[in-house]
Amino acid sequence: MWKEYTVTYKSDNVYDNWVHDAYWQFLIIPVENETQKLLEFDFANSIHCINQYSINGFGFDTIKVHPKKKFKQISFEATFKVLKSNESTPNENNFAKIETSLNEINSLNFKIDFERYLRETSLTALPKQNKGIFKFESNTGIFENLLGLNHWSHSHLKYIAGVTNIASTLETILNQRSGVCQDFAHLFCAVCRHNQVPCRYVAGYLNHESGYLGNSQMHAWVEAFVPGSDG
Amino acid sequence: MSNIESQIFSSYQRNPDLYDEIYDSNGNIKDIYQKLFDIYGEHSIQDYINLNSKAKASFFNQGITFQVYGEDNVQEKIFPFDLFPRIIDQEEWDIIERGSIQRAKALNLFLWDIYHDKKILKDKVVPLELITSSANYLDQMNGVNPPGGIYNHISGTDIIKHKDGQYYVLEDNIRCPSGVSYVICNRTALKRALFGVFNHYQTHTVTDYAENLLEQLESVKPKGVDIPNCVVITPGMYNSAFYEHSYLAKTMGVELVEGRDLFVENDFVYMKTIKGPVKVDVIYRRIDDAFLDPLEFRPDSALGVPGLFAAYKKGNVTLANAPGTGVADDKAVYTYMPDIIKYYLNEDPILNNVHTYHCSRPDELKYVLENIPELVVKPVDEAGGYGISIGNRLTKEEIEEVKKQVKENPRKYVAQPIMSLSVHPTYIDDTESFEQRHVDLRTFTILGRDKEFVLKGGLTRVALKKGNLIVNSSQGGGSKDTWVLKNK
Question: Which residue of A has its CA nearest to B266?
Answer without folding.
Answer: A52
